[in-house]
């Protein structure tokens, strides 16, 4: 999972672009993204494990537009419309608006930032999360099939996120978060 997280968290243009749109300091945006990204990666894994045939999420992952966004985040954030796409993705990642609100509230409590700002950031960040997953999965996506690898793309993505292959995303998320914030 750390490779996926690095794609998001080591790209200051993502934090800077989102910060500009919501009117906060880029370092604050980076801190919020550092909390949101592992949660959203974890929910992606959970959803893919629970419903590997989830067409919506898998369709988003297969869409190369999201991985292309990583090379020029400023353009995609400034262009507008990212919130609508992001809200669709969030619905697939978190399962409901209520769950998204709970994520925003939780991260707001952890960072001291307004939950309203975090709610604005969530749909802007979601396409970049899918883009990171797509970019990481791209080399292997065509070689995996449902029949030959028990789970196809869903299994591949879950395997990438579960780095120690113990079937649990919590330890991977916490380990990554601890490494990021305490190293």
- SSE order: HHHHHHHHHHHH
Radius of gyration: 15 Å
First-residue to last-residue Cα separation? 17 Å
Low-confidence stretches: 143-150, 173-183
Question: Can you characterise this structure?
Answer:
The chain is mostly helical and 183 residues long. It has one domain (2-182). Helix content is 80%, strand content 0%. It is built from twelve helices and no strands. The chain has helices at residues 2-9, 12-22, 26-50, 55-62, 64-69, 73-79, 82-94, 97-111, 115-141, 146-149, 152-161, 170-182. The longest helix is centred in the last third of the chain and has 27 residues, at 115-141. It starts with a helix and ends with a helix.
Which helices and strands appear, and what pairs or packs with what?
Blueprint lengths: L1 H8 L2 H11 L3 H25 L4 H8 L1 H6 L3 H7 L2 H13 L2 H15 L3 H27 L4 H4 L2 H10 L8 H13 L1
Quickly list its features:
183 residues, disordered C terminus, 80% helix
Task: Compose a concise summary of this entry.
The chain contains twelve helices and no strands. It has helices at residues 2-9, 12-22, 26-50, 55-62, 64-69, 73-79, 82-94, 97-111, 115-141, 146-149, 152-161, 170-182. The chain is globular.
């Amino acid at each position: 999972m750390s490779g996926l997280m690095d794609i998001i968290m080591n790209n200051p243009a993502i934090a800077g672009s989102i910060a500009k749109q919501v009117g906060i300091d880029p370092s604050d945006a980076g801190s919020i993204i550092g909390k949101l990204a592992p949660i959203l990666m974890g929910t992606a894994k959970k959803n893919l494990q629970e419903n590997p045939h989830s067409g919506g999420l898998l369709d988003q992952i297969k869409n190369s537009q999201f991985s292309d966004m990583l090379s020029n985040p400023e353009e995609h954030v400034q262009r507008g419309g990212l919130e609508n796409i992001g809200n669709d993705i969030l619905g697939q990642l978190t399962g409901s608006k209520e769950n998204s609100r709970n994520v925003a509230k939780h991260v707001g409590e952890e960072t001291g930032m307004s939950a309203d700002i975090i709610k604005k950031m969530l749909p802007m960040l979601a396409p970049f999360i899918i883009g990171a997953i797509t970019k990481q999965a791209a080399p292997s996506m065509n070689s995996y099939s449902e029949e030959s690898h028990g789970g196809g793309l869903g299994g591949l993505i879950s395997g990438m996120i579960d780095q120690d292959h113990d079937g649990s995303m919590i330890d991977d998320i916490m380990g990554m978060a601890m490494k990021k914030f305490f190293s």
